[in-house]
Each structure stands twice: as structure tokens, then as C-alpha cells.
């Protein structure tokens, strides 16, 4: 099995990214798909595309996805109240959730921010953030999500991230797309993957935040988590 990763940017600004884990004979097919994806993004046309192909030598972990639920909201205020309620049920304090929304509303990060339960930011690089890599969804799961109308193509990508993140011990994830026209975001916890419509207004920025129970001084635990988020291979089936 091989990992394929694509990142596209313009003037050093992130535009698009994609990745998957596939058999050797499907590498060319997915490289072409990812190039087309990079050149069709609504943010703009990239001036740099990086594609990385690596053979996976570590054992792949196969797990079932988080349950997918959609919460329809008529306004940003209603949507954010729903998100806050889900996160509070996991013991995350209101002021920490508020800090997470401030991070997302500023935008501009290439990866995820990490907040502990005291509201302290833990990611080593606040511009790059932390990327969740070496992930894929199975063809069968993709067909089920789209066929049963559980979500969109974006859901197929996002459920892989969310499921891996929670499996590695993250308490909760709050994500808002940085695509200007896409206003649906999600919250993921051990209880499920909650798609929430209208989590932002059109044209606003986005990003993702992971909530963890790691003290700021426990650098070893943080480093292990980041290493696993970025390198441990997962296929969500």
C-alpha cells in the first residue's frame, strides 16, 4: 500500500490538499485526481503543487467510522450553540471553546491548533499547526456516505480525519472549512461526528482545533500524539 499526499498553494498561501492510501496499481489514477482537484479549487489557481508518494511499511490500522449525524441550523448563532453544547458534554469549559472559535475566526493556519483543557495552545508552530496525515476512507464507506446521503465528498475526507483523531485520544475536534462558500462545519467526539450547517457565514475563514487533556509541561505525551497524528496509517472502513 502507498500513501499519496497533495498540497497546493499560491504565493505560499495554502489552497488545497488531499491524500489517500491505495494499492500500487491505483497510484496514477489518484495522482491525476489530485492534480485536477488542485486546479479547480474556488480559492484560486495554485502556482505550486507538491505530490508525495510513499510506500507504507508500518501496519495499517483499520477502524469503523464515528457515527455520522447532521444537525440543520438556520443561523450561525444557533449552529455555534449546538457546537458548544456538544463540546461541553465532554467536559470542555466554555472559555476554552470560546478561545477555539477565536482561533478559527482568525483563520490563516495551515493545520490544526491544539488546545488543552486549560485553554493553553500546545502546537509547536502556530502558523503551520498540526496536520493529520496517512489516512484514507475505504471505497465501501465512501459509497455508503454518498449513497445514503449521510454527507458530501467533503464528509468522506473529513470523517477519516475525525475518526483517527478521536481514536488517538483527542477529546474533541471543532472544524470549520476555510472554503469561502462552504458554511457547514463539524464537531467530533467519542459520541460521533456531528455535521452542523451554517457554522460560519459565507466568505469567513475557518480551520480546526483539537481539544486534549495534556498538561503544557508534558512534552513527551504531546510529541507522541503529534507523531501519531502525522504518521500512523489509518484506513476508515
Automatic annotation (TrEMBL):
Answer whether the UniProt record assigns the keyword ATP-binding to this protein: yes
Establish whether keyword Isomerase is in the entry: no
What's the catalysed reaction?
A: heptanedioate + ATP + CoA = 6-carboxyhexanoyl-CoA + AMP + diphosphate
Per UniProt, which keywords does this protein have? Answer: ATP-binding, Biotin biosynthesis, Ligase, Magnesium, Nucleotide-binding
MF terms per GO, please?
6-carboxyhexanoate-CoA ligase activity; ATP binding; magnesium ion binding
Q: Quaternary form? A: Homodimer.
Name used for this protein in its record: 6-carboxyhexanoate--CoA ligase
User: Source taxonomy lineage?
Assistant: Archaea, Methanobacteriati, Methanobacteriota, Methanomada group, Methanococci
Amino acid at each position: 500500500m502507498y500513501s499519496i499526499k497533495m498540497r497546493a498553494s499560491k504565493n505560499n498561501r495554502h489552497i488545497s490538499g488531499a491524500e489517500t492510501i491505495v494499492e500500487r496499481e491505483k497510484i496514477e489514477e489518484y495522482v491525476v485526481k489530485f492534480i485536477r482537484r488542485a486546479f479547480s479549487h474556488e480559492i484560486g489557481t495554485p502556482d505550486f503543487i507538491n505530490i508525495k508518494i510513499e510506500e507504507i511499511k508500518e501496519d495499517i490500522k483499520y477502524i469503523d467510522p464515528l457515527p455520522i449525524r447532521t444537525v440543520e441550523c438556520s443561523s450561525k448563532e444557533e449552529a455555534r450553540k449546538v457546537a458548544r453544547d456538544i463540546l461541553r458534554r465532554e467536559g470542555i469549559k466554555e472559555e476554552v471553546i470560546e478561545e477555539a472559535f477565536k482561533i478559527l475566526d482568525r483563520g490563516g493556519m495551515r493545520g490544526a491548533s491544539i488546545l488543552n483543557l486549560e485553554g493553553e495552545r500546545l502546537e509547536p508552530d502556530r502558523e503551520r499547526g498540526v496536520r493529520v496525515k496517512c489516512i484514507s476512507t475505504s471505497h465501501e464507506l465512501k459509497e455508503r456516505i454518498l449513497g445514503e446521503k449521510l454527507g458530501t465528498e467533503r464528509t468522506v475526507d473529513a470523517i477519516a480525519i475525525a475518526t483517527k483523531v478521536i481514536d488517538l485520544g483527542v477529546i474533541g475536534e471543532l472544524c470549520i472549512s476555510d472554503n469561502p462558500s462552504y458554511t457547514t462545519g463539524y464537531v467530533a467526539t467519542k459520541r460521533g461526528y456531528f455535521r452542523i450547517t451554517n457554522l460560519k457565514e459565507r466568505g469567513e475563514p475557518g480551520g480546526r482545533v483539537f481539544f486534549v487533556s495534556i498538561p503544557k509541561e508534558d512534552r513527551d505525551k504531546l510529541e507522541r500524539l503529534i507523531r501519531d497524528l502525522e504518521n500512523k496509517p489509518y484506513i476508515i472502513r
